[in-house]
Amino acid sequence: MSTETAQAADDLPPLFAELSAWAGNDGAPQLRVLDSVAQFTHHRDIDALDHSLTLSLAELADAHVVTLYKRSGGRGDPVEGLVRCARDEHDRYSVVSLQPASDDTAQMLLRQGDRDGGCVRLRDGNHGMLVPIRREGRVMGALMLEGEHPMDGLRALVEGFARIYANYIALLDESERDKLTGLYNRRTFERHMQRQTKRLDDGDAEQPSTPRWLAMLDIDHFKRINDTWGHLYGDEVILVIAQQMRASFRQNDALFRFGGEEFLVLLEADDEATAGIALERFRSRVQAHVFPQIGQVTVSVGYAAVGEHDYPATVIDRADKALYYAKNHGRNKVFGYEDLRTRGALDDSKAAGSVDLF
């Protein structure tokens, strides 16, 4: 466990005491707060954690809307996404993930020096309160509460939840991320795939889901790099590839280091051709990069569609077949499984690449 993670774990017990003090001596409010904390820290999936946090705060604060703003970097970086829990006309809460608007009140406040927005009167007559979420001196997001009553008395509660959330995110990141690159690790891939297939199953006609594609990337001649230059340079190549992936793909594309020199991308694209263009752009970017001492490094890419009822191993196998084709047809190329099948270019009786599924 890292020092930061250990500190995150150590910070949790005092926060429970703070929240209990906020709830007062009456046992019922105290139990409500502790039960809410137990509910949202029960999750091991960050998306589920985000949804549970906003719902817990909305119920405790009797708020009309609770919004969680999430940032990927430090001060000045834009908000990358938000989770909003809102009460409908039937007095029921629903939680959705959304793309942030550039003119959002909380975004503007965060850009103005990451300061606490205080409790303010909103244009619609409701009251609002913005509480930044900080970790190790960095603002990683904010919680915005909106309701018909002033919220000054809720500050200790919301700040306590913000601190617990920041600490818990640090704990989850430690277990979900590859230590060398910071990309998602292999353990988390199946959970992302399960979430994706559930999203496809739950999609409706009014808001159809954007199709997803699984791409498998492999560094060409990586063993030769390690044998010639040593493993330190091999690790440096892996780090640069991860950086190029972050620069090439969008925030809502999930990036994984699958093991060794193999990487996965779970990306959104309307069709196979659009997915291929995004992957070709990444391949060209890597080819054009000058790696210290080594010079040019290339990658081969195979990708396949993610279907409604696909198992993770099934999609990996299809992407791996396309990757195997790229490796055996000159390397430094991008091929899609569906296109190869249509052209009759694949021999499915032949074993795919070197990916060990289990």
User: How much helicity do the residues have?
Assistant: 40-55%
Outline: elongated
CATH superfamily of the largest domain: GAF domain
Give the termini separation: 25 Å
Strand tally is 11
Taking the sheet with the most strands, its summary is:
6 strands, antiparallel
* The CATH C-level class name of the largest domain: Alpha Beta
What is the CATH architecture assignment of the largest domain?
2-Layer Sandwich
Rg from alpha-carbon coordinates: 23 Å
**Strand arrangement in the largest pleated sheet:** 3-2-1-6-5-4
Would you identify the regions where 5 or more consecutive residues have pLDDT less than 50? 8-20, 111-115, 203-208, 349-358
The assigned structural class equals alpha+beta
Q: Could you walk me through the main structural features you see in this protein, from its secondary elements to its overall organization?
A:
The chain is α+β, with helices and mostly antiparallel strands. It has 11 helices and 11 strands. The protein folds into 2 domains: about 5-175, Beta-Lactamase (2-Layer Sandwich); about 185-340, Alpha-Beta Plaits. It has helices at about 5-25, 25-40, 45-60, 105-110, 155-175, 185-200, 220-230, 230-250, 270-290, 310-325, 335-340; strands at about 65-70, 80-85, 95-100, 120, 125-135, 140-145, 210-220, 255-260, 260-270, 300-305, 335. Helix 1 packs antiparallel against helix 2 and helix 2 runs antiparallel to helix 3 (about 45-60). The longest helix has 22 residues, at about 155-175. The chain starts with a helix and ends in a 16-residue tail after the last helix. Residues about 10-20, about 110-115, about 205-210 and about 350-358 have low confidence and may be disordered.
